[in-house]
Design brief:
alpha+beta; 2 domains; three-stranded antiparallel beta sheet; 7 helices; 6 strands; 63% helix; elongated
Length: 239
Amino acid sequence: MSKSKYMMSGGLAFAESKDMEKLRQQSLKGWHVKKLSFMGYTLVKGEKKEYIYSIDYRTVEENEEEEYLSYFEDAGWNHVFSEAGIHLFRADPGTEPIYSDKETLAQKHEESLSNTARWGIGALVLFAVSSWTGTIFTTGMIANILTIVAVILTIIAIPAVWTAIKIQSNKWKVQGKQRSVFFINTIIILFLATLTIFLFYGSGPNDAIKTLAYMLIGAFVLPIFIWSILSFYHKILGR
């Protein structure tokens, strides 16, 4: 029998609590998380023992790491792994949660997307929009080059923006700002509906705009499709 296996993640920005619950259930079966993997986690076989799990998002300098980990260990949370500012801890059932009030929970979601990342996403969107605008007002080789650049930037920008929106939505939920959550969800739905109508019933948009519309719609469908295929693949293999 294999001593390690893979577990799919629903995406920390989208299904963090579900991931933590799945890890708890796996620990009851003797499978304990060891590290992050592509779109999931690597689990190793061990003793059947129930653990609860919690994630912290924080950029920790090397000279701060020992103090940072000691803080959680003193509270009963043992460090499992750290990667790219994501820190996973586990503890025995009944241990006081790492985040126990709205203020600290909101801060957690705030920390999950750094200011550098926010500026980076903003710049990415700006460059993508500028590139697409350039394809509309240029022709020939320049238009072709701009189209290639725009496609690449858009492929990167869409999931980044989607994740950032979800993180902000999570923060608003914790703060009880349900109207803000409803508003942003409504905007996304209306945006997708408008794109779909424009794509199929628009009066002759040029190729650049059509390509952009296809990519925007596909960006929401493709991750779900990939997740479904990988999930099915690992279930079939029993990994």
